[in-house]
Amino acid sequence: MGKQTFSKPPTHEFLGPFLPTKEKSCWILLFVLAFEVNSIRGGDVKIDFSYHHYPDLSRVLNDTAASCHEISRVYSVGKSVEGRDLWVIEFSDNPGVHEPGEPEFRYVGNMHGNEAVGRELLVYLAQYLCSRYQAGDARIRQLIDQTRIHIMPSMNPDGFELAATLGPDSPRTSTSWGSYGRLNAGRIDLNRNFPDMLPVWLLQEKSQRRNHHVDIPEWYWDTQVAPETLSVILWSLSQPFVLAGSLHGGSVVVSYPFDSCGLRKVMRSYSEAPDDALFRKLAKVYVDGHRKMGKCGQVEPCNKRNFTCKGGMTNGAEWYCVSGGMQDFSYLVTNCLEMTFELSCDKYPDESELQTYWEDNKEALLSYMEAVHTGIKGFVRDGAGRGVPNATISVEGVDHDVTTASDGDYWRLLLPGTHRVTASWEGFEQTRTCAVKDESPATVCDFSFSATTTWFASKDDVTRAITEFTITPAQSGKHASSSFSLHSNSFLRYYQILVITLIVVWSS
Length: 508
Fold this sequence. Notes:
The chain contains 16 helices and 17 strands. The protein has 508 residues and is of the alpha/beta class. β6, α10 and β7 form a beta-alpha-beta unit. α3 runs parallel beside α4 (117-134), α3 packs across α15 (480-486) and α4 (117-134) crosses α13. Mean pLDDT is 83; it is low at 1-44 and 454-508.
């Protein structure tokens, strides 16, 4: 049988002028490779800028975690009055585990149900982190590999569903003074439902008691504590959070502790925390990353208040006193420094505006998370090299201490400068001088006691001692459409490789 010859398919005659010669193929190859690099380093994830009702919220969080299962998981810290889960999506290179030496960060949105912008921005942030990590974005990979990030889009899912019945078209929900859906289903304002710890601390301070991890007073448990509040309290105590942000609406400003007026009854007077200068620096990190917040005249005044011409930040109590707020609770009862971000005059804006809010806040949200890696960090160990949990870390000149986590690791956000830092535990004490440089990663300051302890509580013992509640992982999402959109960059790269191969083969 003779050698067979094959003619080119009919399509070649039609496509001939558009197919490359050998000379052209090199240029096309360079173009495709350049496009490939851009798809990894540049651009943005395609986000569906819409409102997410509870079923949609559950689906998109699970889809995102399923798409990035190697770095993400979804869990619930509890349920609302009406039985909706308080979902959290976590990002870490080791999801579900506290890694010794790695700081923990959290964002909480939608405490007030009709303040919907923060809820959606946190959904978009989760999608963005997943997509950019998969695309090889160096900044996002570093952030997730070195930080354990917890994102709770909605602390008040019941309130949101109520507000959504009126939506952005009603002034009762959308205006800066709108309050329909603000409360939870039990008619409780969640940001007034935490224990008011400042008066407790000030009274204790006079009797020389500790300036950190102040005990929640017994009388608080006799009050009406919302299940959402209790869940967040237990969650806050179960994880060694270092830095946090709570997203609200009704103004455009960063508010920092103290919110409470303490023992004073004077409204709108500055209530200074021991870390006041640090709070102001952290607030500036968010303001500087925001496209409008600190730029005078860029935002219309909300209720005749325009903070953009005042640096975009305010002390909470100087704005107005809040008793029982979450950020004061975090500061005085846990190691966590927390601030409040007011993101919009319009609490429940039209869906068409959500993309603009995302673009305004994206860099600020990322920069603030990165700030968890400033100050000092390290371990406190005993003579055998084992981590010492619950050791106290004190900084000279700052009347607020933090304590070590279960592995003996600690993080203390501090301003640039030279600090005298003391670690103490059970009568043992060691002091070091630790330097913090501006715009630099946290300085490592380790401590070691000569004593050898005979017993330490395990992580499980510590967790059980704090709380008996369990965090239930959510079921993995199985919605192919969302998974496909989050994997589209990978698909595109496979397609590009195929195109390159066909070009080379055809040109040869």
